# Entry
Amino acid sequence: MLGGKVIEVLVRALPYVLAGILAIFVLFKIEENGRLKADLKTAKAELAATYEAAAKKDLIIEADRKRALEDFHTIREMEREIDGLETYLEKDPSRNRECLDSADVERLRLIFGDD
# Structure
């Protein structure tokens, strides 16, 4: 009889025990879900920072490309000026450095060094 009562109490308590186990399981899942959401937010922030860094690098690369292009055009311009000066001096061999204006002399000094 005592064994029957114990079994009866256990059978009556079983739904509550199962509900408690289920509640604990749900709480663990909610906590795990919260951690996953936090990890996802962290990953999104890291990805955004990576994209921002890449965009900054792209801007720097683009600025460097523009500077290089400007330098190239400046060099081409200087080459044309040198060619013009060479032609000018070759036409009349009696011309020398003293007949050039000071800006031309400075350009030649910058290009070829101070001779």
